[in-house]
Amino acid sequence: MNEATDLAHADIGIVSALPIEMGAFLERCDRQRKYTGGKFVFRGGRYDGVRIAVVESGLGFANARTAAQTLLEAHTPPWLLSCGFAGALLPEMKIGDIVIADSLVDPHGQQLAVDVSMPADPDRGLFVGRMLTADQMVRKVEEKQALAEEFGAIAVEMESLAVAQVARDSGIPFLAVRTISDDLSADLPPEVLSVVGSTGTMRLGAALGSIWKRPGSVKDMWQLRESAMKAAERLASFLDGVIKQLHEAKH
Question: What dotted CATH number matches 3-250?
Answer without folding.
Answer: 3.40.50.1580
